[in-house]
Amino acid sequence: MFSNRLFSFCKLMILIALVTGCQPADTQPIERWRHAAEGAYAADISNDGTVSAVSSIHHGISVWDLEKNALKYTWSQQQDSADNLVLAVDIANNNSHVLTANKESFSLWNVNTGESEGYWKVRESTIRDIATSNNGDHLLIGKTNGTVVHVTMASGRRLEFLGHSEKINTVDMLPNGRVAISGGNDFVAYVWDTQSGQVIYQFNHPSRVTKVALDPQGRYAFTADSKKDAHIWNLRTGKLVNSLKYTNRQEVFSSVRFSPDGSQLLTGAPTRKVSLWNIGTGQRLKSWRVTPREDIRPAGAVVYSAAFRDNKHFITESSSGFAELWPLPQ
Question: Where is the signal peptide (predicted)?
Fold first, then answer.
């Protein structure tokens, strides 16, 4: 009896090993590079997939040439205490600048020279999310007190958007800095003019808005909430293009990227999942799971950023500290 049970157990273990060891090749990364020794706290990948900036406790902010997997710069923004970690990173659409922020301050960095172009502290509340325009000309700061601050660097002009009534969770901005989007705990995402502060569109959700994004070419806006609604909007008309279709009770997004041709959407999640979507249908085309952090239990990873590398590949940065190159379905 015991021998039969042992034999059955051995067969089960062999079967599990065969199943886990024979995953389809296109669901595994082509290459993997370690960018943070003990995990990352924030990361962003440039829109063209050639540069990334990663925040970690041991390395400060590291900037990587993803084409060569070469470290370009290591920066420090008061990363000497657990209360002062850089928790938000944004790379300008033209790769000229990187904006970084912890809860109480933010810095602008020049990617061409590697030098800091400024360090500022916020006076009220704390920072929740950030965005920068091309050339670092305009900065966007979303705060816990419900305000979003737009700063024009050349003139020092500071505009506060006061449309939200609750905490800001997420912000984004077009490359020219003229249009912003913000989402908060008030169940609303606003698209607004950064020169006048006037609302252009208001997108209502049934729960707190956790992720917003703008297509750099000005075609689409993306808004998603903490429960089940994720929408793609026509940025020129404000009309709904599609809603993402999935069967899960809940799907939260940590990163969003539009494809250059405007036909697909790449999303990352706090559950290691990266998904490719068809914008025209709202259907998920394929999903992958990034390498988890093995030093935490249960093993997991947040996908901080995902970007199209070319027509055949995309690249991810996650809290596991790994950058990973993946094949796109052909």
Answer: 1-25
